[in-house]
Specification:
This protein is of the alpha+beta class and 153 residues long. The chain contains five helices and six strands. Strands 1-2-3-6-5-4 form a six-stranded antiparallel beta sheet, with helices on both faces. A hairpin with a 2-residue loop joins β5 and β6. The longest helix is centred in the N-terminal third of the chain and has 10 residues. It is globular, with a radius of gyration of 15 Å.
């Protein structure tokens, strides 16, 4: 399976990305938190979360690695009430997917774009998803990096 086909399979796969990554990672899948904290919502994030432009939202940035190889760079955004209700400030190195899929989230929208990212040596594919969890929207943006192995199962 070529690199394009590998990324396409990952981009289109439904369900928990973390669960799928654990299946293909021969070593230990690690979540490295690059940053998390309050940021002002820019236009795309504000529109997606249905909050006013410039309001404070919680942003979390992580890289999912298998041993030393970075597989996915992810950004997530949620409004103030959602952060409190869902306990997202206490996630630490646990994956966001644990919260989303254990609390009965529903994916409202999903899309794919090709973009350049500083975390890879060329273009990367980004999948974005909007989840609704206990009445709160969560925007997740996942950049699929070149080290990604073929998808299994």
């Amino acid at each position: 399976m070529g690199g394009h086909d590998v990324r396409r399979a990952w981009l289109m796969s439904p369900g928990s990305l973390t669960k799928r990554l654990r299946r293909v990672c021969p070593g230990d899948l690690q979540i490295h938190v690059l940053s998390e904290g309050w940021v002002r919502a820019e236009s795309e994030v504000a529109r997606t979360l249905a909050v006013p432009l410039g309001v404070w939202v919680w942003q979390r940035e992580v890289v999912l690695r298998c041993d030393a190889l970075p597989y996915v760079h992810a950004l997530s955004f949620v409004g103030r009430a959602g952060v409190r209700r869902l306990g997202l400030r206490r996630l630490g190195r646990r994956p966001l997917g644990e919260v989303l899929f254990r609390r009965g989230s529903r994916c409202e929208a999903r899309g794919v774009v090709r973009r350049f990212t500083a975390h890879s040596t060329g273009s990367a594919w980004r999948r974005w998803s909007v989840f609704k969890v206990q009445g709160h929207r969560v925007l997740v943006q996942e950049d699929f990096l070149s080290a990604l192995p073929p998808l299994r199962g």
